[in-house]
Design a protein that fits this description.
By secondary structure, the protein is mostly helical. 85% of the residues lie in helices and 0% in strands.
Amino acid sequence: METFIEISRTAIDKVGEILEIFLNALSLLIIAIGVVDSIIKTVRKKHRSPELSPVHIYLRIFFGGWLVIALEFQLAADIVGTVDSPTKEKLIELAVVAVIRTLLNFFLGKELKEELDLMVAADKKKADETSSLPAVQTSAT
């Protein structure tokens, strides 16, 4: 019976290590995809509507969403990494990292929402100003 328990613990430790590595790698992949996707979306948005909000605002909004997801996967990796060897030091480290990442995630999400609301309002105002200009009529002679 003791051998079974040792084998089970070893297997759980190995699976935990692999899962932790996988989650961290997935987080990095999400960030890399987010960079490319955000740049493409920003360029397309500015190409369609160059008069609207500045480029960096679009880039922050598009990329910020990817960062929120990546932070979630990193937090999951930290939790999995602590499960295989829950020492007092590792648990304290996990608690600190979890609080920091959760706060980062919260404030990033809040900042993105505020920035998005400001961008939408500014873009709507610019669009309204543009549509209220008198139309120039051309006559064919």
